[in-house]
Amino acid sequence: MTATSTVRIQSEPFDAAAEARKLSGGRTDVGALVTFTGICRGNEGAEPIAALTLEHYPGMAEAEIERHVAEAISRWPLIGVTVIHRHGRIVPGDDIMMVATASSHREAAFAAAEFLMDYLKTRAPFWKQVEKPDGKVWVQAKAADDAAAGRWAAPGKHEAAE
Amino acid sequence: MTATSTVRIQSEPFDAAAEARKLSGGRTDVGALVTFTGICRGNEGAEPIAALTLEHYPGMAEAEIERHVAEAISRWPLIGVTVIHRHGRIVPGDDIMMVATASSHREAAFAAAEFLMDYLKTRAPFWKQVEKPDGKVWVQAKAADDAAAGRWAAPGKHEAAE
Amino acid sequence: MKLRYFAWVRERVGKAEEDVEVPGGIVTVGDLMTWLASRGEEYAYAFANPKVIRAAIDKTHVKPQAAIASASEIAFFPPMTGG
Amino acid sequence: MKLRYFAWVRERVGKAEEDVEVPGGIVTVGDLMTWLASRGEEYAYAFANPKVIRAAIDKTHVKPQAAIASASEIAFFPPMTGG
Q1: Would you say residue B160 lies in a domain?
Q2: Nearest CA of chain A to the CA of B136: how many Å?
Q3: CB distance B57–C75 less than 8 Å?
Q4: Is B26 within the bounds of a domain?
Q5: Which one-letter DSSP state was computed for residue B35?
Q6: Which of A15, A123, B30, C36 could cross-link B24 (Cys pair, CB 3.0–4.6 Å)?
Q7: Closest-CA residue to A29 (of B42, B138, D59)
Q8: Are A and D close enough to touch, i.e. 3+ CB pairs under 8 angstroms?
């Protein structure tokens, strides 16, 4: 099966619903559409934040995401995948990123969306800095995210770095 | 945490994106929004279908879904849950149902959405009939759906019927 | 006691609901299905394979062993296929 | 060889990128981090704990043991926190 895929990294806001709908619009083979939207929260831990700023590694970010989208398409029977990730300054309540997956059946759509999120969190070269009342702070990577990504490792598969 | 929940069973179409957005709009504690949309496909197995008709058990359908939404809220730290399920005749390309879950973190939003989908498939009193070229046929329940629902069984928990 | 039928159980029985007087000795949902199957050709057809039929008492899923004594509405239907 | 720094590695080094002549004997990414740490106070601070720093050669993740011989661009950064 050939799946359509879209990967965009941009500073501009995006319309998650409209982007997801492009995967199912005008066709009748999509039975399941999963959309994940990551939204900027107004707090980090117990502290309020005024905004977050996302730094990224241009070129590598696109390549890493495209590589994982291709892997998702090879693992699950998908019809379409869209990943959009913003960089720059984002205020609470605004969307940071989205993953949408379309398939004939829900299992593939859910699994691929979770797989992509786990890898985006741990392998895509983006770094979040939050504006707290006492200054700007880089967000710490979470061990739980590494563990979540680890569950998708294929037996015998070798990753270049952990 | 008190989570907001919405359960609707209706024959009218719904706007999945707008319904999902109600869970995150006007607040800054939602960091993850998962939307699942179930869409009527144009085929069932290898055969084309002209439409499907969903029969349901009024009263029981709402009660079953509300019970599972309450269970999801007790299991995961959710901020809001919306389930909308249509009944009646639905043509290929149109939405059948949706589940949206909002949480501070993605793990809870994904887990709750999958849990609700697995239970809706196997426990909510809805029955699909499809219009094939040679007549109307009731859709068979799938063993895979029962297996999917089984993975959420809490140890020591007793279901009234399997 | 009110009985309700859904999907192909409804189609085979030929009606969506009915009120019945259940004779004594019918204790469980399983007993009720056996008795219903004896009520005529359409019922025999609907309840030919009771293992695949699900039941609900007063809008809650129950097993065939469930007692019907306090039920006001019992529904029979095939495995669910919503979602 | 072009070096790029991101997030707090960039802030500590005080620049986003630079071209460097890597002396002989520097074979791996790990060797390169040790050498960079010796280049001054800001580098010593940035590379004080090389275990927490990730590296990419020509925009692909690599381990500290990776050879740098054929690299044209090497990037150093903290663990990723996107998504």
Answers
A1: no
A2: 19
A3: yes
A4: yes
A5: E
A6: B30
A7: B42
A8: yes
Which residues in chain D are closer than 8 Å to A117, comparing Cβ atoms? Answer: 83
Q: DSSP per residue over A47-74, as a string? A: EE-S-EEEEE-TTHHHHHHHHHHHHHHH
d(CA B105, CA A117): 12
CATH no. for C2-77 = 3.10.20.30
Domain that holds residue B104: 4-150
Instruction: State the pTM of this model.
Output: 0.93
pLDDT along chain B (162 residues), means of 10: 92 97 96 98 91 98 97 98 98 98 97 97 96 93 86 60 42
Total domains, chain A: 1
Whether complex ipTM tops 0.85: yes
Contact C59, B60 (CB under 8 A): yes
Query: Strand D17-19 and strand C54-57: pairing?
Result: unpaired
Check which CATH number belongs to the domain holding B42 and give it.
3.90.1170.40
Nearest chain C residue to B126, by CA: C82
| Chain segment A48-77, per-residue pLDDT in tens | 999 999 999 999 999 999 999 999 999 999
